[in-house]
Amino acid sequence: MIEATTPGGIGQKPIAAVIVGLLFFVVVGLSLVALGLGIGGLIQKQRRKVFAVLGIIFSVVALAMMAFVMVLGQVVS
C-alpha cells in the first residue's frame, strides 16, 4: 500500500514500511493469543463467559481486518 501511494515508489529499506510490517505481526500475534485465552475462558467451568466471548469476538474481528488489509494490499499493487 505504501509503495502504491508514494510518488516514485519507496527506497530499499524505508523505516515506515518496516514499522508497519512489524506492527502487523504484533497485532496478529496478540490476536491469536487473545483467541486462545478466550477459548480457554470458555472451557473453564463455573466462570462468567462474557469476557471470554468478547475476547473471541474482538480477536476474530482483528484477524479478519488483518486479512482484509492483506487482500487489499495484493489487489492495489
TrEMBL record:
Protein keywords: Membrane, Transmembrane, Transmembrane helix
Residues spanning the membrane: 15-43, 50-72
Keyword Membrane on entry: yes
Protein name stated in the entry: DUF4190 domain-containing protein
Species this chain originates from: Zooshikella harenae
Taxonomic placement: Bacteria, Pseudomonadati, Pseudomonadota, Gammaproteobacteria, Oceanospirillales
